[in-house]
Fold each of these.
Amino acid sequence: MARHVKVQRGNTLRCKGWKQEAILRMLENNLENAEKPEELIIYGGTGKAARNWNCYDAIVDALKNLGHDETLIVQSGKPVAIFKTWTTAPRVLIANSNLVPHWSTWENFRELEQLGLTMYGQMTAGSWCYIGTQGIIQGTYETFAACARKHFKSTLQGKIVLTGGLGGMGGAQPLAVTMNQGVCLAVECDEKHIDRRINAGFCDKKIKNIDEALELVTQAKKEKTPLSVGLLGNCATIMPRLVKDGFRPDVVTDQTSAHDELHGYVPAKYYGDTLNEAAALRKKNPTDYIKQSMFSIKQHCKALLDFQKKGSVVFDYGNNLRGQALKAGLTNAFDYQGFVPAYIRPMFCVGRGPFRWLALTGNPEDIIKTDQAALKLFPKDGVLTNWIALAEKHLPWEGLPARVCWLGYGERAEFALLINKMVRENEIGPIAITRDHLDSGSVASPYRETEAMRDGSDAIADWPLLNALLNCAAGADSVQIHNGGGVGIGLSTHAGMVVVCDGTKETDERIKRVFTTDPGIGVARHADAGYKEAIELVQKTEIRIPMIKN
Ligand code: NAD
């Protein structure tokens, strides 16, 4: 029978303290928000929260019995040991999908997965920090806002954004575009996924006919009214056809699960009712499925290059469509830029990145109160104040009420301390603070976050590992290291962390350390790579960089 985990709300603890209870509720929250909860798949193709249901039950049991000076060790979704450590050490340490570099390919990974030895953790799926689609809406909103700033006088009004994929992450695109006043046409092959985004209020319309969809978006562009349309179809056929028909979107990108050609991407001829056939082929003849998938990815990517040639702004949205197309023989696949060098890197240089927090008792009022606190603390940050107003207006709660906004070095510690004080003074219930692995110092991913680094350090994976070690040393409550999130096995190394605000003074001390080290290593990483903004910021902070004589 299918299991549907729901988060326990309220003040009753099942664990020995709020730190352990918070981590358990975050795990449950992942499953409450999962794309395929029965398979423990949270988002991003096959990004899972636990290796199997027996492991899930064992993790829950371990957390319920975990002492204040113990640390639970989770190896790719399986709880493998509990050790006595320190009260200030992390309660949970997680390593997901890591393979020795030479073996780090999907082929080897799948073999080992078949043997029951590993699990794909994506980014926040396996580290239990997913907060539903709203987590990515903010990042997507920031990205489209930066795109609008760079190319269209700071608004997408009267502009059409063409994209693909309405899954766990991609489902944020329609709303993020309309929040920036634009028109979004999103091609998705699974009707259920379009319905899900419409029911969540993220997408306005579902259309099955390409001409009807084009008419709607063209009209909305003309009238300069925000609109989002989910078009049922397959990108590998629709995108080339749109190029051929002379359709000219202003911006083109993609968030199909192209990073995984077997379990993520759906080859050209399948969509809607024929998805069953794709699923059968995947099972019966995976080699043929992969062959079809790779050919389709190549066609899909080529269409994006064609749009670029005709004048559309085209950027890769972190799903490795270009890398896969290159593998399939499209030699100029990388002729369009990734979204990080295009829009995000300047923010990473000053330690600005995703700061997210969850109301652990399930009370939405806690988030509204912290929203107000953030607005008061950062009144001059226009992107943040605009975002919080839009988020309160447009975003439904998904699972535990949560919020995310981008904050820089210094700001994160300041805001986290304020949240912990609000908990201490009983203004709000306990809060868990976490973030995406996509952040200033926590990821090495040459096709995404570290694409085109100034000093060529794109593939240096020491930084995210140091980030994780440092956050352990600084006293985070949970720390995770993963391989392959976003872009696929072997292509990225990244780390995550959680700090639970239980209102205690001891947590204040942890907050001061962790929210300095976590963005701080990002600033140091960008200073080391020679970015001026990072070098200047280091001089104004307590980060000390040892002098090395040339
Ligand atoms: P997902 O698997 O939940 O959703 C992918 C969607 O694409 C599904 O709805 C699927 O039906 C659809 N799809 C697959 N092939 C298609 C095709 N040929 N035509 C039309 N639709 C197709 O994945 P997700 O969580 O939404 O992530 C999407 C991609 O973005 C992944 O590759 C992921 O690794 C990457 N990602 C990007 C970021 C970022 O910050 N930009 C963050 C996390 C993940």
Amino acid sequence: MGNPVWLGRRPLRVRLTAWFVLLLGLGLLLFSGFLYVQLKLSLFTQLDATLKLTASYANNHLDQQQARPAFGRIQNLTRYLNQGNFAARLLTPTGSVWAGLGHYRSVPIWVPAAAGYKTLPADETVWRIYSQPIQSADHFGRGQRLGWLQIAQSLDPVRAAEAKFLQQVFFSLPLVLLVAGWGGWFLANQALRPIDRITRTAQAVGTRDFSQRIGYQGPADEVGRLATTFDQMLDRIQAAFERERRFTADVSHELRTPLAVIKGQIGVALAQHYDPCDYKHTLQGIEQGVDRLIRLTNDLLFLTRLDQGRIQRPMELLNFSQLLDAVVEQVQILTKFKRVHLIVEIAPDLRVSGNPDHLIRLFLNLLDNAVKYTPAGQVRVQAGRQGTEVCTVIQDTGLGISPEHLPHLFKRFYRVERARDRRTGGAGLGLALAYEITRLHNGRLSVHSELNRGTRFTVHLPTEA
Ligand code: ADP
């Protein structure tokens, strides 16, 4: 429902109260109107019944022995009529009065066509008249109409009762509306107070400070849900903001180290007179640093694209056994320089739907880690079908990971021991990438590890079916 122009710009609590008072006022007016009509009807019904009863009482007092009818036993009748402020009269068919009792002279003359009621205004009051025919009794029980018996009563008491009712309504209505308006204002204030708090909290949330919360303590109604949702939204924004900040700090830190190394190498080379062999050696060092930077930026680009949903779930049907064999072959070269024995047990013709590049990246990361963190020992690669999935286990007998690190292992830039990694040179993105790639393929990646005993990574990927 739209608001009237004068309400359009007012605060919500004013509009709510105004609508409440307006609708309540309208409702009360309609209800009072209904009561008024009911009261009027009931008063008239009551009055008409009394007039009819009185007419039958007066009829019993009629003396029809004479040529023209007259009231008999007048004392009794007069007492009865006076008690109820009635007027009674006997009328000829032409409208002349034969006889009358009470204030019958003030009642205007009116000759009815048939028995019934009539409301007639006079100078000072309005009369309600009941007319009843006077019949002459003949031998056959049929009578001839001689004239009319009329009983009248002033409508003043009815009018007074109506006026009193209206007066009470018109005096009490503003009072009721005033109390209702105050109540409405109070309730609107109560209901809108948390919204004010939400507004203040939203205003207090700065570009860097997301620590403010509404902390609503109350029933879980619409406003309660709004406040809770707002707090949850702030929680999410704060978490995202913290993640972003950590991520940016980690990225800059990871970029700074190789860049500093490269700059140092270039500085040294420029400052000295090298022979070509030394230059070649320096350039090789720089190349390694650049390679590391390229790897890092590629990884970051891939993660960012994943976050933005720009990398869709790949649906190419692959011979997974061949793919894994190729990865193992690449890693085999690394083991040549270490005392690491690689055991490979890959079932033939395993099928998986996915993206070969992403899957190679995933298993290269896991196998590379297994070899990297196993100074001496063995690395076992097993792959086989398990129901509707292909399960790959990469198990090493290397350094292992202590339990407190395991929950954070798949987070970006998370490294177990910085000193250990600086030596081996990882940025802490390998497992985060592995985790995201598995998720992209609707698979699962889990880890089990014991310090100084070894680590087992298990990858479940759905098969083609
Ligand atoms: P990084 O590039 O530093 O290896 P990852 O994300 O691949 O980063 O691994 C995160 C951390 O998990 C590493 O710093 C390493 O300490 C630990 N880690 C990963 N794989 C193994 C493993 N097979 N054995 C022991 N530690 C591991």
